[in-house]
Amino acid sequence: MKREAQNIIKSSFLLIFLVLFFSAQAQQKKPNVIIILTDDMGYGDISCFNSEYMQTPHIDKMASEGTKFTQYYSAAPICSPSRVGMLTGMFPASWNFTTFLNDRQSNLEAEQANYLNTSAPSMAKIFKAAGYATGHFGKWHMGGGRDVQDAPGFGQYGFDEHISTYESPDPDPLITATDWIWSPQDSIKRWDRTRYFVDKTLQFLQKNKDKPCFVNLWPDDMHTPWVPNIGEEYTGKFPMNPREEKAFKLVLDEYDKQIGRLLDGLKQMGMEENTIVVFTSDNGPLPSFRGSRSAGLRGTKLSLYEGGIRMPFIIKWPGHVPAGKTDDESVLNATDLIPSLAAMTGVELPPNYKGDGEDRHTAFLGEPSARKKDMFWEYGRNDFAFNYPQEENYKSPNLAIRSGKWKLLVDYYKNNVELYDMEKDKFETENVAKQHKELVSQLKEKLVTWRMYMPVLTPNRVSPKLK
């Protein structure tokens, strides 16, 4: 009887051990997720996408260890709505975002919100509900800054920790010494900001190494002004013209090194194998330097032509995402990240979640496929508060749809239709609308109907002095 009791006790301990062991294993199998969202990086800024312009060896190395996609689209050609599209998995016009957030009056004139509604879906909320530690390090620009002082805090969007810039509800004093985007008085100098955000990301991962982590690493490089560290003290003037090509190249070189530091840090902490890293940009470049930064694609930031919305995209997850592969077939959108990453990590989406994206995780894992859902864009809702590219033929109509291989653009309430076959003409040189009248009619009806049902905030055009 005594031996039998001992065997029962041993069996119980063994059972408890196995339960704990496999529970721990299951937890370990949940991968970390890091989304690197570069600011204003063009399709042609990375050498593995455009070897003729710049050399970015560390980002190229990430591509060689993962898969790069050549048909990935941001949700908008400018920062605030593109970020809303990624965070929510919905087209940003659904939440009254069509241009960058500015002061209250400008937002009103642009017919958009002052900040993202906290009832909107949030990738961070979804991962946090699944047991992830969540962090945001870098630019926000979805509410806060200028004269918008009542924007909700990061916690209301699902983030446990954050470090952010001026355009946020809680700017970090080390990088906001004055009430603006950057200042020579900042403790962390302009050229060290990406390093700072990378450091904060690695510290967050190390601190939460016992649980899976979801991190937005959203630096504000490669946005102007470009202020490289060239060994000179700031004396009231830029060390060089902050919009010249030489300054851009120096800042991009440093940015590339910091992405390398991040990837090396993951390896040193033993996290590389269990971390999904996504690298992309929020919108196209400005300036584009003769189109070099867009690899010849038409348009720039502020345009719905390809140069404004087609972005570099790399995803890495050792042992799962194929290494050294290029996918030219699969068409992706920023709104796809929520359903795709949820599927890859085993995270359940809320039962009431209705995003605009498509689950593309099989494409991420090496099986290219055609897209099922159409993609929609709006930029330039009215004649107020919208800027446009200055280059000839770069200003696009204000609505666009990509359906299969076809891309149609048109201005709302107008008939200036442009139609391009993206398989044959990614540079958008030949408008074939006249040759495909029935297709144009179908796509235009889809696009205009989509726009018609977007929410509208109507500004009061009456001056306060006249009331």
Offer a concise description of the structure.
The protein folds into 2 domains: 29-364, Alkaline Phosphatase, subunit A, CATH 3.40.720.10; 375-452, Arylsulfatase, C-terminal domain (2-Layer Sandwich). Helix content is 28%, strand content 14%.
Compile the SSE list and pairings.
Elements: H1 2-29, E1 32-38, H2 57-65, E2 67-73, H3 79-88, H4 104-109, H5 123-129, E3 133-138, E4 161-164, H6 193-207, E5 213-218, H7 245-268, E6 275-281, H8 306-309, E7 310-316, E8 325-327, E9 332-333, H9 337-345, H10 361-364, E10 375-378, E11 399-403, E12 406-410, E13 418-421, H11 437-452
Parallel strand pairs: 1-5, 1-6, 2-8, 2-9, 3-4, 3-5
Antiparallel strand pairs: 2-7, 6-7, 10-11, 11-12, 12-13
Architecture of the largest domain in CATH?
Answer: 3-Layer(aba) Sandwich
Question: What letter string, H or E per element, gives the SSE order?
Answer: HEHEHHHEEHEHEHEEEHHEEEEH
Give a quick account of the main beta sheet: strands, pairing sense, barrel closure. Answer: 9 strands, mixed
In total, the number of domains comes to 2
Care to count the β-strands?
Answer: 13
What is the tally of helical segments? 11
CATH class of the largest domain: Alpha Beta
Q: What is the end-to-end distance? A: 95 Å
Q: What structural class is derived from the secondary structure elements?
A: alpha/beta
Low-confidence regions = 17-26, 462-467
- Spell out the CATH superfamily of the largest domain: Alkaline Phosphatase, subunit A
Question: What is the radius of gyration computed over CA atoms, rounded to a whole number of angstroms?
Answer: 23 Å
Helix content: 25-40%
Strand percentage? 5-15%
Q: Can you give the mean pLDDT?
A: 92
Instruction: Categorize the overall geometry.
Output: globular
